[in-house]
Structure formats: C-alpha cells, structure tokens
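REVIEWER CHECKLIST
Item 1: Sequence provided? yes
Item 2: Single chain? yes
Item 3: Sequence as submitted:
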Amino acid sequence: MLKSRPKPIRLLLCEDDLYLSHILSDFLCQRGYSVHAESDGERGLAAFKSELFDVCVFDVNMPRKNGFDLLRDVRQVDQHIPVVMLTARSIKEDVLYGFSLGCDDYVTKPFSMEELLCRLQSLLRRCNYQPHMEQRMFALGRYTFCPERRVLALGSSERVLTSKENELLTLLCDNMNKVLERAYALRVIWSESNYFSARSMDVYIVRLRRYLREDPSVIITNEHGKGYRLSVVPTE
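Item 4: Structure as written out by the authors:
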C-alpha cells in the first residue's frame, strides 16, 4: 500500500530526449513529485512563467532555447528557486558557466535516477524546503517493505537492503502485478543497458527471491524477453 503526500513537490523538467524525459517523469512521480515536462527551452520558460514550481531540472542541450539561456531567463524571474542542470558534457568551463548563471547543482549523463533523486532531496534540504514526506509501506504477503528505510521485514526480523536491492524491489513494488521492463529498470538503476549491467540485475533478482522465500505466496517471475513481475499469489 502506498501512502501519498497531500502536497507533492512541483518540479519543472526540460529535456528534449523524450525517452529520458518519460522515464524521469515516471520515476519522480512515483517518488512523490508532481512533474511538468517540456521538450525545449522556450516551452519550458512559458511553463515557468505560468505555473508555480518548487524546483527545476534543465538539460543543457535543447532546441529553440538551450539550458543555459533558459536558466538565465528563469533567474530574471526568480533568484531563489533551486535549479539542477543535466549535461552530457563535463567540461570545466561549461560547469563553471552554469554556476555563474545561477544553477545550484550539475548531474552529468549518464546518471542513475536515484542519484538525481538524492541530489534533489539534498538541494531542497539546503533550501529549507520542508515537504514532510510520508514513508511508504508495501505489504508483500507476510513481509512489509519500507523503501525510505530500506527495510524488508518479516515479523520482528528486519533486513536492511543495499541501495540497488532497495531500488530494484521498489520498482517491482511500484509495478506490482505488472511487468517491470528490463530496459526501464536498467536505465533507472544502472543508467545504461548492456551485458554487464543486465547480468548484475539478474544477480539482484536472485537475491530478492532468496530474501522473500519464507513466504511462498510472494513470487518474482521472469517474463521472457520483457522483464520481471512481482506478485502475491494466495496459497491454499
């Protein structure tokens, strides 16, 4: 069961890679954010002027108005809203230029979704934003799982998961009874989809199955050519 926060953090995302924009929006929405996504800087600026946001994430390379120009225009309207820049370039001059224009943090592609989430949370804390986040709690048969604490519990016994175990089980729970596509999970957690990251994910799936084996009603099945499905199947 997922507890929702009455007032989600409002985030403006400007990213011209529509696939990345989609999975970022989906991931952040599942983490309690309300995401407004635009694919170019001009539309992003129009959205910023017409709506209220708590934080912004801008890609540097966008059509019509790039991230630097968008940041400059945003700072003319609001000097204080936190802004994170996404860039495929780690050139020192570009980073310094972004900071000179007023960005608060940089994330270099490729990156994991959890890294971006942690940077956003850290930035909002520094800006004294108080969202009062509620802890989510998933019921998995006889188990309970709290992603914010990274704890999988069975009765009074608790197991603290590693970061990637926690991320993977969270995605499975967010997609309960549905297929969690391998490509999506790899992009979110490992930031890339290749042979080595795919094999790594398989290892983590095996670990999660082992952690959940005390309740045979909780199963993680392989969906051939697609991904994995987490289900709780009543047993007789």
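Item 5: Key structural point noted by reviewer: The mean pLDDT is 87.
Item 6: Recommendation: ____
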